[in-house]
Amino acid sequence: MKSLLVRFFLFSLVIAACSIAVTAWLASQATTGAIRQEQGDALETDAQIFDELVRYAATHKDWTSAKSDVDGIAQKHGRRIALTDGNGTTLVDTGGENAPQLPITPKALVDPLNVNGKIDPRAVGPFKLNDEEYRTLRAYADQLLQCNGRITLVEAPNGRPRLPDLGPGELSVWEDCPVGYRLYTITVTEKAAYGQLQALFTKCLDQRAPGGRNYDRPLTPTTFDWEVTTVNGAPPEVVACMDSSRREQLRPYVAAPAQLFLTSPTGDEPMTIDLSTTGATRITLVALGILSLAGFASWLTATQLVRPIRALTAATKRTAEGDRTARVDGGSGEIGELARSFNAMSEKLAETERQRQAMVSDVAHELRTPLGNITGWLEATQDGLAEPDPHLIDMLLEESLLLQRLVDDLHDLAQADAGTLRLHPEPIALDDVVDQVVNAQQNREILLRAETTPVHITADPVRLRQALGNLVANAVRYTPPGGEVVVKLFRWQDEAILEVTDTGTGIAPDDVPHVFDRFWRADKSRSRRTGGSGLGLAITRHLVEAHGGVVSVTSTLGEGSTFRISLPA
């Protein structure tokens, strides 16, 4: 027990130490995660501000009217926004007259023609549809949606309705809806814009890539969009010409590049989030305190745990030495449950021991009477005091048969206890089994009759006759002359029911729970008049349970009893 106590205490200390370490790690991770989340939110906010400013620049020719829009963006995100040109001249500033000086380094450059090296798709310039063209294409789009309700349309930045991600060779979707082709007709505005782009592209090729003249062809929208930006398979200088031509074409329609400064509303830079180093001494002291408290609590818990275990150990030793009265008070909780289980086991052992002693006594008693009779009469015959006439031989044979029945009953019980009681199930008519038992148990002094309905089940007919025969024989034995025994058979739900009802002496309420115990008999005097070994009902219970059934009894003292067998049908 000391070993268990020490191991439990050390184990608790290990758990406490691991808990502290894990808690510290989780706290660190949670703090770091929160900081990263806050930093991520700040970066996301900056990105949203930048995107909104790029959108404004892509759709306006200059920044002269941007003050109200930029003020709205600054108020929405809680930032001060300032824009300056390349010379440092302020274009827009939401900080007010008394705002502090701006940082030296700008946050980003707002240029819709150079967003990460690409042209912002919202910079449409001359490709922007006029109102009449927009209404015409919108009408075609509505007709297309009415023709094919399964498709979806999106609106390009220049106002053109289109399918999302429609590629070359995918126009077959319009075979049932011809209006789809009209939706992708090049408008006058787009045709003029493509012509302008063609001229700029040709001029660039003449200046920068004379060898690329084979790409000087009329430009058409390869993606059915206003964005014609690539020349597939061309040399780098040709691709560069297309890129520079598009920027040159769009430059008059977008705002000039502006330097972006983002600060807090008071003018300072947004606060940089940093995780300061926590004092190692303080952490160590707190950890030692927690460890001490955990150790003390673990020691108390271990002591409380070991005390009832020691009591259980002592009681177990006494039980092993033959003391069947050992009991333990384990309190509550798991140990208390273990103590109650031990007490129940001890009581069961005591009861089993009492039953064993009673069984030995009963077996000795049951064997002593027929053996004494046989031995006495054989000795009398040997001494010449009795003649071996037929009457004596019949009497000795009857006593031998009684011994044989007792031995057979004990053998059946032994097989049932060992789980080796064999059954040979087969389809049978249960009403035939009832008739056979009733005919075999007929008695002139008692009315024995059967009330049956046809019931077919799968069971061992020999064992069922034995079980039912024990019940009928028991009923006949305890029914006085002139009484009645009725055997009923019927089906109820999914069960076959056998009932044996008698008008005998009945069973006292205190004795009902014991009727299926071995060697139990209502006749405590063990009179030979009633006969029986006291094993029949116990054998019946085992035989019925082996068939998956249940046997029960209801009885009224002085009025009779009803034994009921329920079998799965």
TrEMBL record:
InterPro entries per the UniProt record, alphabetical: HAMP_dom, HATPase_C_sf, HATPase_dom, His_kinase_dom, HisK_dim/P_dom, HisK_dim/P_sf, Sensor_HK_Regulatory, Sig_transdc_His_kin-like_C
Compartments reported by the entry: Cell membrane
Residue stretches making up the Histidine kinase domain: 362-569
UniProt-listed Pfam families: HAMP, HATPase_c, HisKA
Domain HAMP: start-end pairs: 303-354
Catalytic activity: ATP + protein L-histidine = ADP + protein N-phospho-L-histidine
Signal peptide (residue range): 1-24
GO molecular function: kinase activity
Xref: SUPFAM superfamilies: ATPase domain of HSP90 chaperone/DNA topoisomerase II/histidine kinase (SSF55874), HAMP domain-like (SSF158472), Homodimeric domain of signal transducing histidine kinase (SSF47384)
Enzyme Commission number, as recorded: 2.7.13.3
Keywords: Kinase, Membrane, Phosphoprotein, Signal, Transferase, Transmembrane, Transmembrane helix, Two-component regulatory system
Predominant location category: membrane
Keyword hit for Repressor: no
Protein name per the record: histidine kinase
Annotated source species: Lentzea kristufekii
Taxonomic classification: Bacteria, Bacillati, Actinomycetota, Actinomycetes, Pseudonocardiales
